[in-house]
Amino acid sequence: MFKKLFERYARAIANERERESFYKLFCACIATLIASLVLTAALIVCVFIFGSESEPTNIFVAIILLVLLLLWLSAIVATFILLILLGFNYKKALSRAPSMGEPAETAKLRRQMSDPAGYLYTYFFPDEALRAEADGIRKSNTTTYATVSAISGIIAIIAAIFFISADINGNSLEGYAMPVAITLLFAIVLPFSLLLTRRLKDVESRQKIQLENNPAYAKNLELFTLYTDFYKFKGKIYLIFVAVGIVASWVLAVLFPSLLWSVLPLLIIIIGLVINILLVRGLRAKAEPIEREIDKQYAARTAEQTATVQSGAKDTANAEITGKTEITSFAESSDGTNQSTDGGHTAELGAKQGVGEGNDEENI
């Protein structure tokens, strides 16, 4: 049923049995998530219909609300547990060392999915020193961002609970719970996010100068520019939807302070999130061919460097062999000369001895 959604994840797992197991868990997650969304919509509709009454006059309505609430909580808990299991097992599979005979594309996809930002940095930052610096900043920013998000989330929940329970002169302020919570969440997280990206922008600008000055990295520059242009406008569309949702939530809260109509603008934010996901998919569709070209160029450069090194080593070995041969020839010729010299000395000595003996005979 969900094989099209799972296709990208399936390519990162080589083992057939393991892939089938992950697919079943993935389907369970999607099913419980859909059930959670449907039950959430049903609860909102029921609250809008019966929320005007302080107490349900019909016991049947109360039972329906209670059953929906229990089912909703069960679906939320089940989805949460299944997502944790799926994430843990999938991360474990992605971090596993490549098996024997595993396709190179599978190993590459695993690396891409286990650390998407780190994977992209190999293309954005050919300079290893700048890449290490950028990666260190990114990891530090991620930790800080997660901490700030958690703290702001807790503050937003506390504020929402306060407005839900608040009662001024018999008037409920439930309608303000949602806009206050969302406003606090984004008002805290967004400035921190902008501050954290400043350090990274400095490293990116230095790397961009290197890419522009080196023709060998033309494709890297093309990919870098593609992402930069995307985040100038398309990457900010989601923030526009969030801003519109917050404003709409405040308007509904002012108009209906004692009702939960201010929850409806969440749909605007969800629509913005879906649009952002589709836009990112389009970006990746344009980026992947460029990445493949960069991989080919890198492989060609690596092969050329390897061939150069091997050629140099071969020339060195040949030079050593030639040198040894010359030394051997020189040694052999030296031995021959020495032998000839020794033979001449021997003959001369023999002649002298012969002359000496002849003179002795004459004297006698």
TrEMBL record:
Residues 325-343 have a biased composition (Polar residues). Keywords: Membrane, Transmembrane, Transmembrane helix. The keyword Membrane applies. The keyword Transmembrane helix applies. Residues 324-364 are annotated as: Disordered. The chain crosses the membrane at residues 21-50, 62-86, 145-164, 176-196, 237-256, 262-283. It comes from the Bacteria. This is Uncharacterized protein. It comes from Candidatus Coproplasma excrementigallinarum.
